[in-house]
TrEMBL record:
<dbReference type="InterPro" id="IPR015897">
    <property type="entry name" value="CHK_kinase-like"/>
</dbReference>
<protein>
    <submittedName>
        <fullName>CSON009902 protein</fullName>
    </submittedName>
</protein>
<feature type="domain" description="CHK kinase-like">
    <location>
        <begin position="121"/>
        <end position="311"/>
    </location>
</feature>
<dbReference type="InterPro" id="IPR011009">
    <property type="entry name" value="Kinase-like_dom_sf"/>
</dbReference>
<dbReference type="InterPro" id="IPR004119">
    <property type="entry name" value="EcKL"/>
</dbReference>
<dbReference type="Pfam" id="PF02958">
    <property type="entry name" value="EcKL"/>
</dbReference>
<keyword id="KW-1133">Transmembrane helix</keyword>
<feature type="transmembrane region" description="Helical">
    <location>
        <begin position="331"/>
        <end position="350"/>
    </location>
</feature>
<keyword id="KW-0812">Transmembrane</keyword>
<keyword id="KW-0472">Membrane</keyword>
């Protein structure tokens, strides 16, 4: 366990977060919040502690907190930890404005951020308020609920982007950005691996030809993804890594229905086309069967987007549903990126015959080859390629 996560550290975190210099921390219980490999660039710890106000002597006997050490698995001498800077900026600059516009929470409360001795963030643990990570892809009802909240988020950041464009420009290092060399290299390598496997599949010649053409245009398409133009109609601040691991859900257990959600992990948040989050929604949130309801999901998202903008008193032209469809078509290469490069993550457990997904293993080229050879993956990818390439 990390020795410096001690009484002094948590007192500083709570005094900063709650603006109270009189807080004194009592007993602390600390445990690992994730399994090995669960997070590529972070280590997460859960703490339970008590504290009192030495001035009023009021005691809070139970507080649950999350401590996230960003880039803890990298060098401790990092002076420019972009994921840390991005997440801190989201929490300190953007999320308060989003919540002020929406009059509702969109993320857990950040209490403290520090760069010493590691890049660390401390949050209130939303689990104590009934929120949970649900490690499954979702049915249509839940997908529509998530699309509704995403529409509000995008509307708020669309509005802020129009009012404060300079405040958005530094959110420019998304997963597929040319500034994220590791992310781009991973996508390129995965496309190459897939093509080299699919070339041996019977009946896939037509897809391999299309994929070779797709691969040759990949870098050009990636650059287009982050080029912000004045006439862009759906430029928002994307979550950037939207998947079911990064959403906390709250259920009404009596009626077994979803009543709220919070987004977490903003290390890859990026200002750009809303298609980034929307293709994540369609592939990394929904089941394959639910993706057949794409038009209904996008209409629900757009309706939420429009209603939120209207509630802000936004008076300029609001993008139409046709504009949204045009945006999705313009960046439809993300469909192949999701299907070929990201969706295989869901098949790791089949190859390794483990119950839990090992995220660290995802970056092993040999593992990706094994996944592409799975009959289950082949059955998934063929209709996606057929529809995308219209062949």
């Amino acid at each position: 366990m990390v020795k410096w996560l001690d009484q002094e550290f948590f007192e500083l975190a709570l005094r900063t977060g709650y603006g109270d210099p009189n807080i004194e921390v009592g007993q602390i219980s600390l445990r690992t919040g994730t399994h090995d490999g669960d997070n590529y660039i972070s280590s997460v710890y859960r703490s339970i502690l008590s504290y009192r106000n030495r001035k009023t002597n009021v005691v809070r006997p139970h507080l649950e907190m999350i401590v996230k050490l960003i880039a803890a698995k990298m060098s401790t001498s990092l002076s420019d930890c972009v994921p840390f800077q991005t997440e801190v900026a989201m929490y300190q600059e953007i999320i308060p404005q989003i919540e002020n516009l929406l009059h509702e929470s969109v993320a857990p409360r950040l209490l403290y951020a520090t760069k010493k001795p590691y890049h660390a963030l401390v949050y209130e643990d939303a689990y104590q308020n009934g929120y949970r990570v649900v490690n499954i892809r979702h049915d249509l009802e839940n997908t529509l609920f998530i699309a509704d909240k995403l529409g509000k988020w995008h509307a708020a950041t669309y509005h802020l982007g129009k009012r404060q464009p300079n405040n958005m420009q530094h959110f420019d290092r998304g997963l597929f950005s040319h500034k994220n060399a590791e992310g781009v290299k991973f996508i390129q390598n995965t496309l190459d691996i897939f093509i080299n496997v699919a070339i041996y599949w019977s009946g896939f010649d037509k897809y391999v030809q299309k994929m070779n053409s797709f691969r040759s245009k990949f870098e050009q398409n990636m650059k287009k993804l982050y080029e912000i133009e004045r006439n862009d109609k759906f430029t928002v601040l994307n979550h950037g890594d939207l998947n079911y691991h990064n959403i906390l859900l709250k259920y009404d257990e009596t009626h077994n229905r979803l009543v709220d959600l919070l987004f977490i992990d903003f290390q890859l948040s990026v200002f750009g086309t809303a298609a980034i989050d929307l293709y994540c929604l369609l592939f990394l949130i929904t089941t394959d069967e639910v993706r057949d309801f794409r038009s209904q999901i996008l209409r629900h998202y757009h309706s939420s987007f429009v209603k939120a903008l209207q509630s802000f008193g936004y008076s300029d032209n609001i993008p139409t549903f046709d504009d949204l469809n045009d945006e999705m078509e313009k960046f439809n290469f993300l469909e192949i990126v999701m299907a070929v490069c990201i969706m295989p993550f869901f098949y790791v457990g089949i190859v390794n015959k483990k119950e839990k997904d090992d995220k660290a293993a995802r970056f092993d080229p040999d593992l990706r080859k094994k996944i592409f050879h799975l009959e289950e993956y082949k059955n998934f990818i063929e209709p996606v390629l057929a529809e995308h390439f219209n062949c």
